[in-house]
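Lab notebook: predicted structure, single chain.

Context: the supervisor wants predicted structures on file for every construct in the current expression panel, including those that have not yet been purified. This is the next one on the list. No modifications to the sequence; it matches the entry in the shared construct table.
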Amino acid sequence: MTSHPLTTKSRFPSKTVGPRTAQLLMELHEQGRTIFTVSDVQTITGLSPASARSLVRHAIIRGIVSRLKSGLFVLVPPELGWATEFTGDPHLIARELLAGADYYISHASAMELHRMVTQPQLQIFVTTTKRLRNRTIHGIEFRFVSIRPEALFGVTTHWVTRQAAVRVSDLERTVIDGLRRPHYCGGITEVAKGFWMRRSDIDPSRLIDYALRLQVGAVIRRLGWLLEVYRLAPSHELERLRSTLTTTYVPLDPALSAEGPYLRRWRLRLNVSPEELEAIRST
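Prediction complete. Output recorded below exactly as produced.
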């Protein structure tokens, strides 16, 4: 396959590319891909492993490609000129870092995708059945939350671009994950805000189903209390949660000091005032 000189120059006006690099760029463009590996370079160009790595090295020097991690690269948009560090969409990067393992975008990152936050997020949270260490790529921190395979449910597809999609927790699972680990969402108050913002699109019965399926007592307690405070579920649905409670008390927000009154009905230590969460209803 030979490059089309006009197409190549129009897409990469400030960067000189050879025929093999042009072939790689055009094929990735045809496939709607911006992230690739050395193995992809070999498949597209027919080069040997050593020659493929050399091609990528030169592409990085020219600002055509940016390295994400060992063996993983992203195309740099032509409009960025000679930039040599570019991340691209971080959600797609997260997907590639999992290398085919089961995952979904979660917690604060899912809240952002579902329009449940008002501030941009500076970290990407990914829940996965694979154990991975957190890592920072070009200033973006990727945080991986491990779960058991049976706990992976409540996942939907989110199209990041016209050609590329990622897996993300659905609205209900996003709330449940936030109630389990509020500190990954900015605290219980931020979870409650996001819940309230999207309340008309959230199914309370499905929320309860998810909480019971997950079988985490803290989630059941916090969800029951929140549904009750916001009057979003009838008493018979709340009873489904209450019937599973043990005598143990947990804090409403585990990241805060264990102070405040005990709420026997939901076996909670209210270390966030009910008035603070009630005030969200008027915002």
